[in-house]
Specification:
single chain; 240 residues; alpha/beta; Rossmann fold; four-stranded parallel β-sheet; 10 helices; 4 strands; AB_hydrolase_fold; N-myc downstream regulated; NDRG
Length: 240
């Protein structure tokens, strides 16, 4: 509660991705444009000069691009399940997404839910299935046509070859299929600037280990020189 009272949180909905949005008429921006221009414009409009960015999945990818384009505006980044490479998991669903031939094939909402849950559609693992159902319910309020444009933009993303020279906390669940990719990114990073939090026995850190993520986030922000008087928390991560 003290962290919340002493911080300003800005949640950015990508164009047309807010609940109950009408069909977007304008040309949808690329992931690169969202990172380099849209985020900048939002911060300019709100007169926010500096941020600590927190993003997951596509959001992490977008924030990494923002930091590369505008490093002087980024105090630090917390990137959960960052995929820096070009199309990976979504590419496996591409044909069913764009060439649906019958009602049994997946909608854009299913594609995003599966991507977020990081599991196969027919998985029998109870925890994974519960996560999938929770994500599917969560995206039902989104505009499917707009969501398809966002998915298309993400599928057409370009590789991020390096992270900006800002402080970064990379986060991954040990059971997530994205974990190996996050570790690969970490291996190439400046270890004096980059930390890795790998949470054992979880797939989705934000849903299954929110407390540990919150602890690490607070320690990370304290390391940047902010919220230093907030109560200490148990647990720690290392720059190793």
């Amino acid at each position: 509660l003290e962290i919340k009272n002493r911080s300003l949180f800005i949640h950015v909905d990508v164009c047309g991705q807010e609940d109950g949005a009408e069909d977007a008429q304008e040309v949808f921006p690329t992931i690169q444009q969202i990172g380099e221009e849209v985020i900048r414009d939002v911060l300019d409009e709100l007169s926010v000069p500096l941020v600590v960015g927190v993003g997951e999945g596509a959001g992490a990818n977008i924030l990494a691009r923002f930091a590369l384009a505008h490093p002087s505006r980024v105090l630090g980044l917390v990137l959960v399940h960052l995929v820096s490479a070009e199309v990976g998991f979504l590419d496996q669903l591409k044909d069913r997404f764009f060439h649906r031939r019958n009602s049994q094939q997946m909608s854009p909402l299913d594609v995003v839910a599966l991507h977020k849950a990081s599991i196969g559609k027919d998985s029998t693992d109870e925890t994974s299935r519960a996560l999938l159902e929770a994500y599917r319910a969560r995206v039902q309020t989104l505009n499917a046509r707009n969501l398809q444009k966002y998915v298309t933009a993400y599928m057409n993303r370009k590789v991020i070859s390096d992270l900006a020279e800002v402080d970064v906390l990379l986060v991954a669940g040990a059971r997530s299929p994205y974990c190996a990719g996050v570790e690969a990114i970490y291996s190439k990073c400046n270890k004096t600037k980059t930390s890795l939090l790998k949470v054992d026995d979880v797939r989705d850190v934000m849903s299954e280990s929110a407390d540990k993520l919150a602890q690490s986030l607070l320690l990370f922000v304290k390391g940047l020189g902010f919220l230093t008087s907030c109560p200490a928390v148990d647990g720690e991560y290392s720059r190793s």
